[in-house]
Amino acid sequence: MRVRRPLRMRARNRYGTRRLKSAVLAASGSVLVAAACLWASPAAPQETASAEHVSARTALGRRIFFDATLSEPHGTSCASCHDPAHAYAGDHGSGAGVPAGSRPGTLARRSTPSLYYLRYVPALSFHVDEDDRRSHDPQPYGGYFWDGRSDSIAELVRQPLLNAREMNNRDIVQIADKLRRAPYARAFEAEFPGALDAPEEAVKALGLALESFLTSPPMAPFTSKFDDYLRRQATLTAQEAEGLRLFKDPRRGNCADCHTVRDASPVPELSLFSDYGYEAVGAPRNARLHVRDEDRGLCERTDTTKPSSETRWCASFRTPSLRNVALRPSFMHNGAFTNLRDVVRFYATRSTNPEQWYRSGVPFDDTAEAYRSLVNTAKVPYNRHPGDPPALNDDEIDAIVAFLRTLTDRPR
Prior knowledge:
Layout: H1 7-10, H2 17-28, E1 31-34, E2 37-40, H3 51-65, H4 78-81, E3 125-127, E4 139-141, H5 153-156, H6 158-162, H7 172-181, H8 185-191, H9 199-214, H10 225-230, H11 238-248, E5 278-279, E6 317-318, H12 340-349, H13 394-405
Antiparallel strand pairs: 1-2, 3-4, 5-6
């Protein structure tokens, strides 16, 4: 029997420009003015007093990001999993879809998202979708990590540092000791006077330095062919243009329903290719992972001020931006795919040819049985049935992939 997604779960976070702008402004506190449109970027830390100060903090953050002594044992830096060659995504050489940890034989739990364009990600909140009159139920939006469990970059960085499956530090005392011994310790002390004297302050300062680096202009380059197309400085090929059309077509690809694009505007910041909402897409099991962890997604968050622990949020993960998606070595929260075309084909044929994707014979086999009814089976292209024609044929899949490759930023 085909499982239908409950009606209240079908409400999408399809915020138009006005609502998206308001939500991000509320989260970040600073404004970009472009072509009479407002768009938010994160406020600089309150201590910042000058461009020189920002530059020093950003440079420090970059050194920390590439410091391989901050793991235990040494040898794994932030850049090991967030590789610049892969748009700051990567798997640390594991080949398993999720990154290798600092200890031999260990693997992280989820795939590594790209760190480009983090400056536009708002803190997690709940909003009513004003476009959906069927529901007044607030929907989740924003937050860092696949499950939105962190509301700031400065806060999130301590999690991989202390995760035994990632950088494996014992505690913040060990991290602070490494910072005191680092070749940039003097620069750290100059930027954050006295912070190295107390472990908690040292880790907070480390987070602020990394935040400065990860939200600096080079980390949101907007140098892709698609950006040039938006600025009327480039022309898409016939195949790329067809891919864009199918990407937006609500009856065919319907990709833009979650991966927001505003191609009528010359402002690239309005086309971030994510609505920062959450969706249960029923990714297949990653056969390369011999140990399978139950991953409940959004409902695993333990925050009590903005709780998301209700069962209905289980199996939902935040929509990633598709900018630079062609550079990623793996896809989906569990790293199940290594080929971009397979990802597009999965979305187009998941409902019509499930046997191609769920080798166990059980649809949505990487989702715990208790939550499989929450997987979206109502929205295009998920709303077809086994044996129906797929939402996209092979040529149309190729066209969408060609379009997605236009989202790759050129090196500066």
